[in-house]
Amino acid sequence: MPADMKSTIAATYMQMIKKGNVDKITVKALIEECHISRQTFYYHFQDIMDVLEWSFRQVTKRLVERTLEAEGPQEAVRIFVSSTVDSYPMMNKLMESQRRKEMELLMIDAVETYLRELARYKNPNLTVNFSNMEITLRFIACGMLGVLLKYGGMPQVDTERLSAQLYQILTREIPHAKDMEKKQDRADQQP
Fold first, then answer.
1. DSSP 52
2. Lesser CB count within 10 Å: N end or C end of the chain?
3. Is the pLDDT of residue 188 over 90?
4. CA–CA separation, 125 vs 120, rounded Å?
């Protein structure tokens, strides 16, 4: 039996999602694909959703680790966006399942956890009211997931541009409408 059976079960489940319909993957089908007993499965996981939740936690953990190695915050956003765009086919399959609501909440929770971990590592002395932090993280997570689900699956999505736009939003570096109007007025006045 492999040393890390939990990872083996989760990896097999992810491969099954790539090949077929999420709603048709049962514990029975998964244990047959893994060549394990039902007892082994239930030793490691409670049910299929538990496998998916654990997998999301592992992906989030690895993504946080990669992001912490980034040279700066803009590079960190680029890593996050690129990773999400690469995962779009899987995310889309999950969103098309009969458990869409659960899948959506799972994805939002993963993005929120990712943001919380980054904040914890990057700003260990951050003094923000817990309630304010939770609502802010949830708001940002919902927005980021919505944007990534909309644009992540587009053919030839420009991840660099999308990353830069999200970085501007996250850092409040969005040009204000009045600033944009002034720039346009200056451009119109030039010969």
1. H
2. C
3. no
4. 8
Coil, strand or helix: which one is 97?
A: coil
Considering the domain architecture, whether residues 83 and 117 belong to the same structural domain is answered as yes
Which tokens sit at 163?
């990353």
Judge if 17 and 93 occupy the same domain: no
Q: Tell me: the pLDDT tens digits for 10-26?
A: 999 999 999 988 999 99
Judge whether 185 lies within some domain.
no
Both 35 and 73 in a single domain? no
DSSP output for 100-151:
HHHHHHHHHHHHHHHHHHHHHHH-TT----HHHHHHHHHHHHHHHHHHHHHH
Count the alpha carbons within 13 Å of 122 in the hemisphere toward its beta carbon. 16
CB 80 within 8 A of CB 140: no
